[in-house]
Write a sequence for this structure.
């Protein structure tokens, strides 16, 4: 069933998307404000269940790409993603029937809504990452055979770049990243143009709904003064993200972060008590792996989320600071993101990590019991 | 009058183009071999005088871009520039009536011939630099109002990138350079799509003929055992490049060269005798300025050419080596390349040089007399 997303949903959606962004995806705050402003003119946005799509519908995902550290400092004009879409539509000689998120985390939960509010297009309730990932080939679309090309990049000056690397989505990412760096670290894109059939076959379904429910669960717990993480676990248990585990609780004692090669890379250390082993989280835009000594507690593609210990507000990697009291949780990703093809695209080795993938629900049982 | 360029012309053309490349433009040797191979199939190539072009003819220049240091090591497959042309034609929905060089120096004297031999298109006897320059906005087309956009970039894998920065040719260069770097340092392009009228208004005319005559002059002198530089000066005196001055003779005693930001940058020092002042030539792909102590002997956009002292064979910046015995000559550029608009685009300040432009014919008179 299609449904209407209104301005009253945006705070919950942004909170949920920040959590699903697993540290990255870019802070959605500015995106939310842009969508609110656009919605004040357009009214609510139509969200389509992917199962409703005609097989021959033409769907073009829209997104922002760039380092989250730059995203928070460089405010979009607001028309860039629709310009990217328009450039791609013109190039292909075909008009999109709907847009869709490429990831359900961070600002990219908002960009397709911004396009929708400004163009009248509906948004498909699905995405290509089921979380956030730093690179454009790390999408389930790519894993399951959809070419990202041709893709369009647009900036606030009306300039555009069209990239066609055939079926080589890694090369598309490589070239698009080069352009994004030269545009100052952030760009807006339209990519993976696909049919309704391809959406149904390759997208992670119903993740706008998921982000909204995650955001609402945290808000409900705050309002009822109950445990937000318990509320979150209860909400997730009936979804494709059914396992939630608390990995660690403590204080951020160190953050190393640098913006390099167009990404925010680094690590954070979190301490529960002096002289106790520290949790180390390594990130590239998103959190990649959480380790305690030699033990891997969670690793990509599973979600590693750092939440404020009091409010359960998710904290992105570029907002991590010394002294923050946090809860670190791990969430299992859907089965379609754990297949061998999927792990070959966005598993630990794709980030240069030596750790094998271990599902978060099996990795941390022992630890949780001994804490 | 149109004329036919045959395989017997290629050696002279390559030699002349290397000289007009003023140290850069990329060594044309490989390009020459590719054209020879293509001509063996196609036969001679039609060269069009720009004055013959219909005002509404559609001309698309084709070229290679990249650092000369990479150009000599990375052999093209041969089909890349025609793929760039095809990508641009498809994007614009219009077929080119002719191609044209963007510069008359180095390998880019050969690339449009390669396209012509493989596609059957004629080549316009004109170009957009009147020499070689390192960047895409440094073209007389740009100086006199032709947008470089949209432009196409293609590689040997059939991948393509289309860049549209409206009338901002500097930004086009910036983005195209980013792609070229990510493609490994060399790419092939089609840019500045324009009308016959625009060619007549903005191109430096008859520079294929010029390169051919320069190459022939040097060969004639070698065959006749006369002074090649005197032969060259006599040939140039009746062209738009009417002044030739010998700036220095000596031995290369030092070359600093690094491939950085997609360019070959550095400087060479040339010594006439121990304890005598050294000539210093600074370059970015092309030779930019020749100084003797505080005296500027020649500076962009005038040509600074380093020739083998015996054979007058031009030596490109990436071929400069310790111990080479060389003659350094300065050649005046056409008036249309010395206007204020032209100097604002490719004058000394555009390369970060503090020297004012001084025409080579006025700068070196004193020096030549005192040597």
């Amino acid at each position: 069933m299609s449904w209407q997303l209104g301005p009253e949903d945006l705070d919950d959606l942004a909170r949920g998307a920040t959590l699903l962004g697993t540290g990255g995806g870019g802070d959605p705050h500015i995106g939310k404000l842009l969508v609110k402003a656009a919605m004040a003119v357009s009214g609510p946005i139509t969200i389509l269940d992917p199962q409703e799509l005609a097989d021959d519908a033409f769907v073009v995902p829209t997104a922002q790409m760039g380092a989250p550290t730059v995203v928070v400092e460089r405010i979009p004009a607001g028309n860039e993603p629709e310009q990217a879409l328009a450039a791609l539509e013109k190039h292909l000689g075909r008009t999109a029937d709907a847009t869709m998120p490429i990831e359900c985390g961070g600002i990219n939960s908002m960009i397709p809504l911004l396009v929708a509010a400004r163009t009248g297009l509906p948004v498909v309730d699905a995405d290509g990452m089921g979380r956030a990932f730093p690179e454009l080939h790390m999408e389930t679309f790519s894993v399951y055979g959809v070419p990202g090309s041709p893709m369009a990049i647009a900036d606030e000056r009306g300039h555009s770049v069209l990239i066609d690397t055939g079926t080589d989505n890694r090369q598309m990412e490589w070239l698009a990243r080069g352009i994004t760096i030269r545009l100052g670290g952030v760009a807006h894109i339209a990519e993976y143009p696909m049919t309704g059939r391809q959406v149904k076959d390759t997208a992670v379904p119903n993740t706008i709904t998921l982000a909204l429910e995650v955001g609402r669960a945290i808000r409900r717990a705050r309002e009822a003064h109950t445990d937000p993480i318990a509320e979150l676990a209860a909400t997730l248990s009936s979804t494709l993200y059914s396992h939630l585990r608390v990995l660690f609780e403590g204080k951020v004692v160190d953050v190393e972060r640098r913006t390099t090669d167009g990404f925010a890379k680094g690590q954070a250390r979190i301490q529960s008590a002096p002289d106790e082993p520290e949790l180390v989280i390594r990130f590239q835009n998103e959190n990649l792996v959480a380790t305690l000594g030699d033990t891997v507690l969670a690793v990509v593609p599973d979600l590693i989320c750092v939440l404020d210990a009091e409010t359960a507000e998710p904290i992105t990697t570029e907002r991590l600071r010394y002294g923050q009291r946090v809860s670190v949780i791990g969430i299992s990703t859907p089965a379609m993101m754990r297949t061998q093809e999927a792990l070959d695209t966005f598993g630990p080795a794709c980030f240069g990590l030596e750790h094998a993938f271990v599902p978060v629900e099996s990795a941390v049982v022992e630890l949780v019991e001994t804490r």
Remarks:
- The interface with chain B takes residues 87, 91, 157-166, 168, 171, 174-175, 177-179, 181-183 of chain A (CB under 8 Å).
- Chain A has two domains: 3-205, 233-370.
- Confidence is low (pLDDT under 50) at residues 365-371 of chain A.
- The radius of gyration of chain A is 19 Å.
